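Private note to self, pasted from the team thread so I don't lose it. Backbone tokens:
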């Protein structure tokens, strides 16, 4: 695990929304794992075509629970305008981001790909803070397919495991950036 210097911020503990397609694999995995790693963070997940009310998909739930994170109470929800007041909205694919920007253009400068978070982390370290203007600058950076997180829904276990490992790495980068100590706040310990 990499050590990161504390960053001052004009955001207290940012509110985060994670979005995927069905809200049963990638976004709940990221939401619940991030909540476990940054307990006081206000985080939610939604789907652009959610399987409303469904529990987390079995393979991804098993892979999440192997990381000591309980997913038993999770139920999928459809994204709507009320969800988009988050300081940072993270999608798994460029297609999902495009959907959000088409349906909710007001979130353009707060919405990026989870796979591009290491770029945001580097920018924050370079600027010495995480701020809404830094997030807005980050959202203007080009993204490529390498920033996307593959959908493991109804795919073989090996693909689900690869997606879970990728999400784990991206969530750790995000957690390192968002932990209260990284934001210049005293740690709750």
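Design output:
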């Amino acid at each position: 695990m990499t050590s990161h210097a504390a960053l001052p911020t004009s955001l207290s503990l940012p509110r985060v929304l994670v979005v995927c397609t069905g809200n049963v694999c990638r976004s709940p995995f990221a939401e619940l794992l991030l909540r476990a790693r940054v307990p006081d963070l206000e985080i939610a997940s939604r789907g652009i075509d959610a399987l409303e009310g469904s529990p987390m998909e079995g393979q991804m739930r098993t892979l999440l629970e192997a990381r000591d994170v309980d997913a038993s109470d999770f139920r999928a929800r459809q994204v709507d305008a009320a969800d988009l007041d988050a300081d940072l909205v993270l999608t798994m694919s460029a297609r999902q981001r495009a959907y959000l920007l088409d349906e909710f253009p007001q979130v353009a400068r707060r919405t990026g790909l989870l796979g591009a978070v290491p770029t945001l982390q580097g920018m924050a370290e370079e600027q010495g803070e995480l701020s809404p203007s830094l997030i807005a600058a980050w959202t203007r950076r080009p993204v490529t397919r390498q920033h996307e997180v593959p959908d493991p829904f109804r795919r073989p276990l090996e693909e689900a495991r690869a997606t879970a490992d990728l999400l784990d790495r991206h969530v750790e980068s995000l957690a390192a950036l968002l932990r209260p100590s990284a934001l210049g706040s005293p740690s709750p310990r």
